[in-house]
Amino acid sequence: MFIAIVAGSAWSVAGLPVTGMVVAPLFDAVQIVAKANTLLVTLLVGVTLGFDRLREIAGIAAAVLLLKLVVSPLLIALPAHYMALEAWQLQVLVIESAMPSAMLSVAFAKRYGCDVRLASQLVFATLLGSMATVTVMMRLLG
Q1: Dihedral sign, Cα of residue 52, residue 57, residue 62, residue 67
Q2: Which residues contact 115 (CB under 8 A, 6 or more apart)?
Q3: Which residue has better confidence, 64 or 53?
Q4: I need a surface site. Which of 66, 109, 111, 125 has the fewest CB within 10 A?
Q5: Which of 101, 86, 97 is nearest to 138 (CA)?
């Protein structure tokens, strides 16, 4: 990801073309890979997701759910109330902070030799938990 950001920024700063006979097929190929990325990461989460040790991770899952889905939105909402934000801006900030963990974190866990099954279980837990917390946040924010 870092390399892609640096390469894209360098391309933009250099003023290189983004359309043309040579560049357009290159960008089209990158778009195809980008679309496949979402599918592949979702498949990775599904393949590595296991329900065999749910009792073992209950405490970790509860802590992650509390921190990610409750504490994080509160840490965003409290100082944001004192800023000169319009209502929709506050809503976007709080709702975005209440979203589930990114599925890409499972791919990172696999890449860097971490516990992939635990990562996928926690991502899945935040996905399920966010259904309730995002609904509550939306109602509270009006």
Answers
A1: negative
A2: 109
A3: 64
A4: 111
A5: 97
Sequence letter at residue 121: Q
Inter-residue contact 101 to 118 (CB < 8 Å): no
* DSSP string over 82-106: TS---HHHHHHHHHHHTSPPPTHHH
Q: Which residues contact 16 (CB under 8 A, 6 or more apart)?
A: 23
- Which residues, in sequence order, are CB contacts of 118 under 8 Å at separation 6+? 57, 60, 109
Handedness of CA 54, 136, 138, 70 (dihedral sign): negative
pLDDT at 1: 62
Confidence at residue 89, expressed as pLDDT on a 0 to 100 scale: 92
Rounded to an integer, the average pLDDT of 121-130 is 91
Q: How much is the pLDDT for 22?
A: 82
Q: Which residue is associated with the tokens 């696999």?
A: 110
